[in-house]
Amino acid sequence: MGKKFSRRMQALLEKVEDKDYEPIEALNLLKETATAKFPEAAEAHIRLGIDPKYTDQQLRTTVVLPKGTGQTIRVAVIARGEKVTEASNSGADIAGSEELINEIQQGRMDFDKLIATPDVMPQVAKLGKLLGPRGLMPSPKGGTVTTDVASAIAEFKAGKLEFRADRTGIVHVMFGKVSFPSEDLLINLKALQETIDRNRPSGAKGRYWRTIYVSSTMGPSIRVNISSLRDLALAEVA
């Protein structure tokens, strides 16, 4: 049985050719094919030549999107003493110590990012079953276990995202909103590409980049020319 598409999707698929699009062309087309009745996100789906079941082929890192995510990020901080006050003064939406850990255990989840200082991680570890499946567990690699809570709060509020390759070696990242100008989306996509290249796992063999597709939340996938994206200098984009 072939997959059945709605009439809306069928019409959009007809606009997308089976070819590698130049990055700016792909993003213009992404905007053109975003016709859902809600503000759609711009998504990148990148297949890498890695097998994450091996520890030296795993990719988990953060990217700072220069043009932001277009989302309001609610940040919670678990710390002790002065660090709780520092977090509140630095724009954290929620800040606390053991009492916040207890509230989370009882189901409090009104935040998008959880930052913790290293000294409270033994207590935070018991929240693993609750936080892990939601991708909220603080980790040093994700930049969410730190003593510099003020910088971490500012970065995540400004457009820092944590991402990882899934078990099939594909990275799925939201890199802005469809409402952004194509040039801003390109700046964010370029920052993502550079971050992925900079963090190439030591065990990655052969061709690292296999395919990159961009799409809106409810739109068709558009294949991007990898070489063109990698050869693009940020100075040309900005």
Automatic annotation (TrEMBL):
Species for this entry: Mastigocoleus testarum BC008
Alphabetical keyword list: Repressor, Ribonucleoprotein, Ribosomal protein, RNA-binding, rRNA-binding, Translation regulation, tRNA-binding
GO molecular function: rRNA binding; structural constituent of ribosome; tRNA binding
GO terms (BP aspect): regulation of translation; translation
Subunit text: Part of the 50S ribosomal subunit.
Role, per record: Binds directly to 23S rRNA. The L1 stalk is quite mobile in the ribosome, and is involved in E site tRNA release. Protein L1 is also a translational repressor protein, it controls the translation of the L11 operon by binding to its mRNA.
Coiled coil: none
Family: Belongs to the universal ribosomal protein uL1 family.
Any single Gene Ontology cellular-component annotation: large ribosomal subunit
Protein name: Large ribosomal subunit protein uL1
InterPro entries, A to Z: Ribosom_uL1_bac-type, Ribosomal_uL1, Ribosomal_uL1-like, Ribosomal_uL1/biogenesis, Ribosomal_uL1_3-a/b-sand, Ribosomal_uL1_CS
Organism ancestry: Bacteria, Bacillati, Cyanobacteriota, Cyanophyceae, Nostocales
